[in-house]
Amino acid sequence: MMSLAKIDRPRLEFCHIPTPLEPLPRLTKHLGGPNIFVKRDDCTGLAGGGNKSRKLEYIFADVLKAEADVIVTQGDVQSNHVRQTSAAAARFGIECHGILGRRVEDTMPDFQFEKESGNVFLDNLFGAHLHYVPGDTDMDLALQEHAEALRRKGRKPYIIPGGGNTPLGAMGYVRCAHELLGQARDINLEIDHLVHTTGGTTTQVGLLVGLHSLQSSVNVYGVSSSKPKAVQEEKMKGLCADLMAFAGIDGEIPPETIVADSDFIGPAYGVPAKETIEAIELVARLEGILLDPVYTGKSMAGLIALIRRGHFKAGENVVYLHTGGTPALFAYTQSFDFNR
Q1: Which of 74-88, 107-121, 189-203, 261-275 has the lowest mean pLDDT?
Q2: Burial class for 159, CB neighbours closer than 10 Å (0-12, 13-18, 19+)
């Protein structure tokens, strides 16, 4: 077992952590399965909260060390990462450029959502410079080209990949794994399963490596928001190895513990299925907690379906990691029909 101090990296401290670990008694009763708890990483504080803030504490420590004067990052139009990065940049007086891909619009042209609401409204409020590109753009190349254009103007850019998906960013969820198990010990909770949304994968990779460093047997179950199971799991295998090396942790993450369920993606990335909307409404009305149609609504739909199928058993303890995304709700009002 390794202490966090032995593997940690320099970070800034602007998250509201530890985030709460709370029971969901009404949802538990409604589903009649395992005991459900929620780890409230929607409450990390920065710009409405979310999982990216934990990653940005580490990344922005490096930004300041590098003395960068402009951030260049990317995401889709309703990107939680770009929203939180824009806010962190504003907090530290650094210009932020966000490259936003139109993946939802390009793949589902008939789907309606309010493009200038939700996260985009907040990006603008934080003063980010937004650059829209087609959904099939090579985003890594776009980041490099945009940064190079800024260098030619005498600027000193720092590139943050989408989602903060670097070993340094993943350290945020190594720390979260240590935090979660500490909270569980304090209330004598034996966690059997940890369920969350997996998108860029570094949240899950950080959790897997953090739990491994603690020799924990908690099962991590990722529900994919966009990519097929095989693609997502193969990507995580490589990133787990990279993070283990970066953190100086011996051994390897057993491949069978790397799970990404892609059955709940729905019509496309960023487009909610009927089950997504039902999950959002159910959790709101039973527990007063907000989920979003892009990420957490899909993983909660997965959790609900898996409980109903008996995958998670009565008497087990399941923690749902709420990774945030609430602002995106306001761009999807047309997906809800409260008069039906």
Answers
A1: 107-121
A2: middle
Does domain 53-164 fall under CATH 3.40.50.1100? My reply is yes
Q: Domain 4-50+166-335 class? A: alpha beta
Strand partners, 268: 271
79 flagged as catalytic: yes
Number of alpha helices (DSSP H) and beta strands (DSSP E) in the chain:
12, 10
* Closest-CA residue to 293 (of 281, 285, 304, 303): 281
Average pLDDT score, the chain: 96
User: 320 exposed, middle or buried (CB, 10 Å; 0-12, 13-18, 19+)?
Assistant: buried
The values of phi and psi at residue 49, to 5°, are 85, 175
- Domain ranges in the chain are 4-50+166-335, 53-164
Catalytic residue among 53, 79, 225, 262: 79
pTM over 0.90: yes
Query: What pLDDT sits at residue 108?
Result: 87
